[in-house]
Amino acid sequence: MLVATALVMMMTVPALALFYGGMSRSKSVLNMMMMSFVAAAIVGPLYVLIGWSMGWSEGNWFFGNPFDQLLLDGLTTDAYVGMAFQMTFAVITAALISGALEGRLKFSAWVLFVPIWSVLVYFPMAYMVFGCQDNSLICGQIGAQDYAGGTAVHINAGIAALVLVLLLGKRRGWPRDTMRPHNLTLTMLGAGLLWMGWYGFNVGSIVFADGYDEAQFLAETGRTFANTTLAAMTAILGWLLVERMISGKATTLGAASGVVAGLVAITPAAGAVDIGGAMAIGVIAGGVCAVAVGWKYKLGYDDSLDVVGVHLVGGVLGTVLIGLFSTADGAGGIDGLLYGGGVGSLVDQVLGVLVAVAYVGVLTLVIGLAIKFTIGLRLDDEDEATGIDLVAHGESAYDLHTGIGGGVSSGLAANAPIKPEASTRAPSTTKETSQ
Hints:
Layout: H1 2-23, H2 29-56, H3 80-97, H4 107-131, H5 137-142, H6 150-168, H7 184-208, H8 214-247, H9 252-266, H10 275-292, H11 295-299, H12 307-325, H13 344-372, H14 381-386, H15 388-393
């Protein structure tokens, strides 16, 4: 559990910070990485204070008693590692949202949004899915399977990102200006670290479970490890095939995004499907998510780093496809439609998705509107043009200015307005420009 917990923590810092940072424009890379670090700093202590109690105490349909285990009251220290494992899930779910908001969300708004959203949205979702009390809505009442967070993490973060994007509006110049990733080397490195960390995410979820004898434990960890690996591999192939068909190119950004899409989709299904099902889920997720990242250009929402196209769409696919590919030999003990189990499991999975989308969407909208009409969500035009790294943090990721004496300049030259530069993927009809 210590290893699994450390791996999941690595998924946020540094893995997600690098993955998102490389996809950002050079004038907002530090802010993007900072949003992951700050999410960890805020959510961790808050989880210890009230999050564990809301997720793992007896409660109603939506959340556990927040005061039953307040500040871990009654939790023995030998259970702290399991608590910390779940805490890292809360951290990365909040951090995932940040990728959709690149370059235009006030840092102060992020600092306010994260704790409120965690308490009102993530902690209840963790209870409904992971806590799985008899009366928790998604797991207990509906009976939907979610092995490691398709609903609680990825659909959750994806819907929250979409709501905030719609409240924020488009970046200045988007989609007219081609806003391409400024450093794909960082993105590829981040994707590789995410892949490694995902073994803690998925395999650790079976370690966290109880009631298994040694033989069951070995069988489930082996299944989950293999499924996680093969889904990521086949998702790369699915993404690159679709990308090649659409644009004639197979890109490094596509390979990195395919890895994440496959990992997102297998997350809820990792213990429920066999190896064939895992490979099918991976290739489907890779191909569909490759198409889905282009929807923002057709529908007009500016999801900067494709949180909606990868995490929301991938999370929905992985959760629903359990209803087709799950096997009675898996953790849930349920045969899906393609294994002779009928439509019952598929219906449960769809209902679980709909509940997650509705709950997260409504609560995130309320929180976002409250912040918008109090301290405000968005940078003003001048600050956005200058770049949030300088405006919010007083720093530049790549300070290449040199003073007369040959040292690195600490003067104000770095504070000159920076010409708007990159984003993620441009629509196929947009002429690419060099950075």
